[in-house]
Design goal:
This protein is mainly α. The chain contains 14 helices and 2 strands.
């Protein structure tokens, strides 16, 4: 009993930043881990097929995540909460589920089969400046100059990563006179869909309970992805979906990425500031590139070094600007609080005369 108390006391003493950075390491490594799992499957064919194909990873991984969400958030699906959701809300939920739960992950997973992990990670950062741009145009949010400069730098970094890629044996597409890899194009399209889903969620679904939002998005997204995959690849593509070998690895994958990663992130958010969480999240691509090197042996190319460096500079500019803005707000709030206290003291002193 004493050992359990000491253990709990130790866990509560861990700073929130530690949980956030551990979550970032896990999320950053997810793409490299996904690619590694498909390689393990390729070494253990069943009937001439890879049981851990990217489609199977996404489909079964989503099922594992869905079971976990139902266990954690299932009580939120009650009549009182559901009656508050309008038909318009359900329509936006359907759109977001298709964009973020089916199309975006499907495109990103397919891009992992066509290009290296570092490209997918870096090009995926286009989501950040695009979301910022859409927030300004659609949501009319106010942003400072530093955030805009940082977003532009990150966007240029993504373009450089795409344009300066060496022309290997991968499938290429000619757009505006530039040869762009199909894998890079799919990764960028997936990031665009995620950005659109984020803006729609911010504008129309902010009041939807997290449990309802998460479970519905994951469930519908899984179904839509399954139907699309059936149409494109045929039913034989999911012949190994019940394979114990696949589920064994998916339970490990789901337990690490979904359970541990999400738990650490939520735990950290509860005790850390928003700016700290934002800063930690910004380093996800750095963690992803390191994971790709350590797990897959993928060393960054010159284009990735250059583009990734610009993306990192953009992130730092945005974070410095946000911290300065938050510091300025804090000083203003303190000044207002001090002025109110002084006013109360003056009134009290006047009454006492």
């Amino acid at each position: 009993m004493d050992k359990l108390r000491r253990k709990n006391r130790f866990i509560h003493q861990i700073p929130g930043q530690v949980y956030l950075w551990l979550a970032v390491l896990i999320f950053g490594a997810s793409s490299a881990i996904t690619r590694k799992l498909t390689e393990i499957g390729a070494e253990n064919f069943l009937g001439g097929r890879n049981p851990i194909s990217l489609c199977n990873v996404l489909f079964v991984g989503n099922l594992c995540a869905l079971f976990l969400m139902i266990f954690i958030y299932g009580q939120q699906w009650n009549q009182t909460a559901l009656k508050k959701i309008t038909k318009k809300d359900w329509l936006y939920l359907i759109v977001v589920a298709i964009l973020a739960g089916a199309l975006a992950p499907g495109l990103i997973f397919q891009s992992l089969a066509l290009t290296n992990v570092n490209n997918v990670i870096l090009i995926g950062r286009i989501e950040v400046p695009l979301t910022l741009f859409l927030s300004i145009v659609v949501l009319k949010e106010r942003v400072n100059k530093g955030e805009i400069v940082g977003a532009i730098a990150a966007f240029i970094g993504v373009l450089i990563t795409v344009i300066l890629q060496p022309q290997t044996g991968q499938i290429m597409m000619n757009m505006a006179g530039l040869n762009i890899g199909l894998g890079e194009l799919l990764a960028a399209t997936g990031a665009v869909f995620l950005s659109l889903a984020t803006v729609i969620s911010k504008q129309h679904l902010i009041d939807i309970p997290l449990g309802i939002y998460s479970i519905f998005r994951t469930a519908l997204g899984t179904v839509v992805f399954f139907i699309i995959a059936l149409v494109l690849y045929g039913s034989e593509h999911f012949m190994d979906v019940l394979s114990p070998f696949l589920w064994k690895w998916m339970l490990i994958y789901g337990g690490l990425i979904v359970v541990v990663g999400q738990s650490f992130w939520i735990k950290g958010l509860r005790v850390a500031s928003v700016s700290t969480a934002s800063l930690a999240s910004s380093f996800t691509p750095v963690a992803g590139i390191l994971a790709a090197y350590l797990i897959l042996g993928e060393a960054p190319t010159p284009a990735q070094y250059f583009g990734g460096g610009l993306i990192l500079i953009g992130i730092l500019i945005s974070q410095i600007s946000l911290r300065r803005q938050n510091s300025a707000r804090l000083m203003v709030n303190q000044e207002v609080s001090t002025a109110k206290e002084q006013e109360i003291e003056n009134k009290a002193g006047f009454k006492g005369v």
